[in-house]
Amino acid sequence: METAFTPFQSLAGGALIGVASVLLMGLMGRIMGATGVLAGLLMPANLADWSWRAAVVAGMVSGPIAVMLVTGEFPQVQVPVSSTMLVIGGLIVGVGVTFGAGCTSGHGVCGMARLSPRSIAATLTFMLATGVTVYVLRHVMGG
Fold it and tell me: Which residues, 6+ apart, have CB-to-CB distance to 24 below 8 Å?
């Protein structure tokens, strides 16, 4: 399995996520954790709460369209697993997000920026689990 690292696109994407997080916190006092935003969109407290969450999700979903307008083609996404594995992975992530009280974007971007001890611990756990998973998949299982 080959990993294609794209440093400039990654830097640009990270900068956009950072700016969006700062703007959401500065303008609305909200933390931009993707699962929290989505959960509040599906079960909003009120219309104003639903509106900003819908705008954030629309911005996330419209990213490939923006790439297409700039480059003339949609970004290519290769998913090296079956749809079944995607569903299983999504369920596992959902359980982890529930027990971890947030996702990587909430803890890793926003929580770390606020120096939250819980977010620092969560992000270290995410990174350790990711490293172990990649090692097992590539070197133990031979993927």
Answer: 30, 31, 32, 52, 56
